[in-house]
Amino acid sequence: MKESDGRPEVKQQIRRLQRELAQRRMMQEVPKADVIVTNPTHFAVALRYDAGKWRAPRVVAKGADLIARHIREVGAEHRVPVFEAPPLARALFYSCELDQEIPEGLYLAVAQVLAYVLQLRDPRPGASPTAPGDLPIPPELRREA
To answer: What is the pLDDT of residues 47-57, one digit of tens each?
Structure first.
């Protein structure tokens, strides 16, 4: 069996290296993100939207616990805005894969977050942007803490 499937130790080391490479590639995408949506400590999801290329925003990085903290740190180093929205962060984390467009059910919530972030980047004279409050997350995409 070991001869046909390969040694378990070697396969384990290959999987570990593949995970490390994937995480490194993911972290290289964080500085290009438009916003990082967080559940303060547990989840972080970095989103990017290119209106000329994509139909919807894409998840460029996501992680839980230590990886989430690392995403936030890399984002802070590159001045990527962080938006705290626990229900949205959980919904994005559980319903999206890397480099995948967000589900249609989250379009409105993510659009509100992106609009707020764009207002922060390019403030209009005399207007102060207000953070979106209760974001619309469909029940089928909600994940409770």
So the answer is: 988 877 878 88
